[in-house]
Specification:
The complex is a heteropentamer. By secondary structure, chain A is an alpha/beta fold. Chain A contains eleven helices and ten strands. Helices cover about 35% and strands about 20% of the residues of chain A. Chain B is α/β, with parallel strands linked by helices. The complex binds adenosine-5'-triphosphate (2 copies) and magnesium ion (2 copies). Chain C: Keywords: Cell membrane, Membrane, Transmembrane, Transmembrane helix.
Amino acid sequence: MATGAGVLRLEEGPPAEPIHQSTRERDSATQRRTARVAQTLASPALGLAKISLTFGGVAALRDVDLEVARGEIRAVIGPNGAGKSSLLNIVSGLYRPDRGQVQFGEHSFDQVPTARLAAHGVARTFQNLALFKGLSVFDNVQMGLAHRVRAGFLRQIMGSPLARRIEEENRAAAKEVIGFLHLDDVQDCFAGTLPYGVQKRVELARALVARPKLLLLDEPFAGVTLAEKQELSQHVRNARDSLGATIVLIEHDIGIVMELSDRVAVLDYGRKIADGTPDQIRADPAVIDAYLGVAHEDDTELAV
Amino acid sequence: DEQFFPLQSYRVGPYAAGGTGFFGGFIDYLNLINIRDGGVNGVKVTWDEGETQYEVERGVEVYERLKSRPGTAAWNPLSVGIAYAMIDRITKDRVPLITINHGRTDSTDGRVFPYVFPLLLNPYSETSGMVNYLASREGGRDKLKGKKIVVLYHGSPYGKETIPIYKLLADKYGFSLEQIEVPHPGNEQQSQWLSIRRAKPDYVVLRGWGVMNPVALKTAQKVGFPADHIIGNVWSNSEEDVIPAGDAAKGYIAITTQASGAEYPVLQQVIKAVYGANKGNLDDKKRIGSVYHNLGIVNGILNVEAIRTAQAKFGKRTLTGDEVRWGFEHLQLDPARVEALGAKGLFHSINVTWDNHEGDGRVTFQQWDGSKWKVVSDWIAPDWAFLRPIIEKSSTAYAKEHGIKIRASGEDPVSQ
Amino acid sequence: MAHLARTKTGRPTAETLWIGIGIVVAYGVVPFAGSDYLLDAVLTPFLVLALAAVGLNVLTGYAGQVSLGSAAFLAVGAYAAYNLHLRVPGLPLLLDLVLAGGIAAAIGIVFGLPSLRLRGFYLAVSTLAAQFFVQWALTKFGWFSNDNPSGVIDAPVLRIGSVSFTTAAERYVFSLTIVVVLTLLTLLLLRSQSGRNFIAVRDHEIAAKVVGVPLLRTKLLAFGMSSFLIGVAGVLWAFAYLRTVEPAGFNLDRSFQILFIIIIGGLASLRGSFIGAAFIVVFPLLLSRIGAALLGRVFDSGVLEMSQHIVIGALIIVFLIAEPRGLIALWDRAWSAVRPARRPTIPT
Amino acid sequence: MSDVLLSVEGLAATYNHAIRAVNDVSLSVRRGEIVAVLGANGAGKSTTLQAVSALLPARRGQVAGGRIVFDGHDIASASPAKLVRAGIVPVLEGRHCFRSLTVEENLITGAIGRDAKSRVIRSDLDQVYELFPRLKDHRGSISGLTSGGEQQMTAIGRALMSRPRLLVLDEPSMGLAPLVVQGIFRALKQLNREQNLSILIAEQNSRVALRFSDHAVVLENGRSVLSGASDALRTHDDIKALYLGGSPQSDVGEKPRIHAVAGL
Amino acid sequence: MFDYQFLIEVLIGGLLSGVMYSLVAIGFVLIYKTSGVLNFAQGAMLLFAALTFVSLVERGTPFVAALAATLAIMIALGIAVERTVLRPLVNQPPITLFMATLGLSYVIEGAAQLLWGTQVHGLDIGISDTPFEVAGVLISRLDLFAAAVAGGLVALFALFFRYTRTGLSFRAVADDQFAALAVGLRLPRVWGAVWAVAGIVALVGGLLWGARLGVQFSLSLVVLKALPVLVLGGFDSIAGAIVGGLLVGAIEKLAEVYVGPFFGGGIEVWAAYVVALGFLLIRPSGLFGQKLVERV
Ligand SMILES: Nc1ncnc2c1ncn2[C@@H]1O[C@H](COP(=O)(O)OP(=O)(O)OP(=O)(O)O)[C@@H](O)[C@H]1O
Ligand SMILES: Nc1ncnc2c1ncn2[C@@H]1O[C@H](COP(=O)(O)OP(=O)(O)OP(=O)(O)O)[C@@H](O)[C@H]1O
Ligand SMILES: [Mg+2]
Ligand SMILES: [Mg+2]
């Protein structure tokens, strides 16, 4: 595929799992899927066990189990209010589940410490934009590396060699991501004044810049034009392929979901009602009833 | 020839009532001198106002702006804060600073503060005068023994300045003393007055400021404390302090250095010559003869007489700041001279010397009858002999801290 | 400090040039050409208030924590420097300055702790606790003012080594130097990761937390840094400008004045702090001069002052309506009409 | 009476008197017509729609040129409240629910705008709940805490409560589940047919938008560069390539350009 | 032996002063509720109202006529503020509006003093501030009257906000001004009305406080007493204003009387703030304040 060239290159050490750049055809992808699923049980990148969450009587999640294998693109879909975002919020420690455990690799948490999330290699985007409106696009992207800056403020002011080196590295990384995501033109603009779709892109850039091991995406393509959706989904795929990131994706554009993901979990009223490969999900009657409807392509039949 | 008075006035803000009265009186008197006498021995007096809103830095700004005007006679800020900020500056620039009825107590010591004049009354003298008045009301100083006095003071440096001197006097005369603070601005005094009610004192001394005064009187009424046992100090003695309290102020007594009322000849002349010529400074003619206005008039008299005194020595011309200082240091107005000035009964007398910059003013007490003040005591002298050593202790400490050489005579402070 | 003068692309900007010219004029021309009045009563307070505003801007403009207690930290700085000077013989002035700032910073951090829980006006009103507590303590405990019966402190002579700053021009240069150095340091801080963290916390706290911004540290750094700068400004206020101060000089009005400066000048803009300070110091003076010149014969100073009050209040509203982002944005807009538009970088 | 309900001619708009967001946009909506506005991110769709609803001043934006005529009246200087009463009701990009109000209270505010009686409000509420059963379950929830899609439903429902004549929708399908999107479009179509509701809609989901609408306008860089019947546009090659994702070879690395279309 | 009688006296005194604070706090709450902004001009409005009234009375206007005239002026002021300040600043961040109200307070203070002078006036509203004794505790008539007025206002506003649609639109406006415009709420009307009502509340507060302090510049400082009330009760809660007021009054007085002596007194100024602060750490939006709604 021609687009592969334009996406993040690998700079860091080898990814957790060997990647077969050459095998791009659909069958081999399926093979890979199965291989990953098999690996899941051995050491999931992310595991959720019996997660329950209620908000004053409303059960947002009930006994949800979810395992995400390393290097997998794992979609979570479901009707509005099914609990998808809540799930991500639990994974990023913003919500504390009533019951259940979250497992990153070998660490297991009742509540994930949000402050250490980035240091653990987890990055996320938000369903409703959560950019820093008063920072330029460049600085927003660079903020994705905030956790890397360890020098104290005095050393930052004085520009100690360490602080400078980190700053230079971060700038370079930000520049690179901005280049890949075609944000050069707007890199000096305040993020708050950009069109919605571009802001979404900036958020993705902010998440990607840290080269996360686990990337949580909450409706990253909402409000983005179709062509750009295709492009952005390439970037997501490449984040996995070149960086070895594990990705959890929430998205309502079912076409993209089916195209992009290795496995799909479906939530409805806080319960997981299905879990499997895209093809399995597409055919699952419960999912069709609850979520997809009859025409699951975008060509919604509007003539009633 | 002209003699110039820079005025750091305040006609806006929380203390505007005092500022308009005082500076109004001062300007009225200067106007009188120009209109009636054509100036001081022919030297016209001029002035320029700079609004400070009682804020120190605005006072300083006005100082810096007006200080280089020729023929500056003296500064009269009527603000402790501004006065403090000016002490170094006026000493350097060698112009007298008049802090009538207020300012640093220890600046009474002219040996250390050659250019500062807390004329008529410093806080310690005021305190002593208060206690002497209470003694006279009880029938003698020995009768104070066993009495209970509460001092209700404003929670500011001004309010707290007299804490130690009250303690000394309590020890000396054997009355029991409780000093209670009212936090600035003093618009709520419920708890203080409940404590007072519980303490059941014989007298409450009110060392208040601005809105604190009427609230004190009102709250006293609320807890049933009689107004005629509340004695106000020199910043709690104006019409502005009692009028808002309405009925609650009836019977309230306060100290003053200058009686209120417009019946004194000098005020009559002001009304005729100045207000008659439509040059009066007060918008509201009813305020002529009010406490602050009369303080301004007295302040005008003292300033003008100091110039006159200095002119007698240096000639009838525009004087330098140092020459005016000399005038203040020799300002002697005995009751006869006060009468000649048309101010008999308005204030008693003053005798400033090179080392006593207060000039031993006497105080009197006035009672509010619901519509005006009535003098209810003689002119009472504070216990100057008792106070002087205390003042000197403080001033010599100041001199030491600041490396000031203590003057040994009334000669030019700089040439020594 | 070489990296200050460069933008991301490494070229000096027009802005840097202008700042450079400004500094040259401030040092090379003003002290010689300015009258004592200009130096002592206009420029020095302007500089000091600008520094205080820079301090508050770090906290409120950049880190988004509204504080109404700035005057308290001015007071802490002033009284701390006074006491250090008094009680530690031989303490060099510059060290005294830094320590006083440090004490203000420490107290600022203590009063900044509630910011971890409180937002918006709740936090703002809570900072009033600092305002009232500090003022009360300074009045209450005579020790702070060396038992001066009036709570007033007198400034020592400004002396660094054998150089002493006594004339108006010298004190101005002293203040200018401190203000310039601290402003530049602040600029460096704001351009570093810490500066970005401030804005991130202001704009979206949750997102900031997720990307690994240490919230506690960032907020307390903002409080500390801000109080440090304001504290040093307090020292200058007491030592270089007024030279004697009383606690009442650091009242709520002063806090509002500083808040005023940064909002009128422009939040999250250091240049705005200076423009705002100039406005707040110079404009009333100008207005009262003009008023006195034109109408002084007709009205007394009280009427003029009140009218000025109204004019200033109305102007503030007018400016806010014209440009809620402050005078600096107005200025930039006017400027970009003359010159081709510049892309925004980190606002300074 | 003309059958054009809304016409926008040569609209130009700026932000802060400086940034030009829209240069020259013209479009018109006939009575009972559905018009879609298409365009890349930043083309100026939201700005145009906000100009129509007189909402630009609140974002420090200004209409710098052109005319907006609704029902025969120039509405350049009308207040948003007046427009809502006249029947132009916007659904804003980014939801903009009243965060601390409950879902039901949010819906009711839509009816306050047109000073409705409580009985009417009740029945309108029921209709909205019928359209969005999910909202009924959450009627008492604080809307700021509900899920993204629920907020979107609330925003649309709130607009319907105003009984619009011209509904101005900015990306209504954003964040909604496919079934719900279908449901909404169906319902709107029904309102359109039964009550002659006119609709102006900006939508990224161009396939749906083109199917749903009668007419479409394409914006690029703040200009309307193409317009026509939706059916025709659907088969238009460039539109296909850029908005329907049908093009096989387009290099996604390039930003989409539409100059070819503009040249047509 | 502990003096319980005195404790009760202090407590009651505190509660009654607290009611006076509530009177001022209500004005803040009203405006906060509809624009999310702390209206710093409330103090100036208080001063302006009282000064206008007292000046009219002193110029010989009958009591009732003066009251009506002042009322009309305050309503006009509210409407004018909406026109000139709020409308152009719609959808701006709260801090900008806050600053605008500060500018406004300059204008109002200046205008009040320019118009009516800087003199101090006494104000007699016909209710004497004299005490009567109930079981050994002195209670002032004015305090009781103030309590009744405050209670009445609170009840009125609480009912209004709960049961009318206007109340709902107020809350909507405070939440999101942009969305409020979009649904067709008439912001000018809402704000005009609220500022007018706040003006009336300022008049009531100004008269009662003026009767106690005298009508003078310091009247504008009573707002400082209302601020801890607001944080304690919640900025947007009418009921909070009264409960907060009572609490602040009681805390202040008890602290001053029983804790103050250890510090040498005068702790009233900050005691309320410190207690309010401690309290806020547990409930960051006050007793009854709307919790911050925030999710991602
Ligand atoms: N508040 C604002 N201040 C300054 N510029 C703005 C503002 N809002 C929008 N713009 C600019 O106006 C242009 C048009 O933006 P608009 O939001 O109308 O685009 P859009 O077509 O709706 O995009 P999207 O599909 O992403 O929503 C963009 O370049 C944007 O940066
Ligand atoms: N902080 C919260 N407080 C109260 N209720 C909440 C909170 N967060 C989520 N909920 C409720 O939990 C349920 C699940 O919400 P969530 O946001 O997870 O849904 P979702 O699957 O992401 O939906 P959508 O696709 O619409 O975004 C919803 O009914 C919502 O109202
Ligand atoms: Mg969601
Ligand atoms: Mg848009």
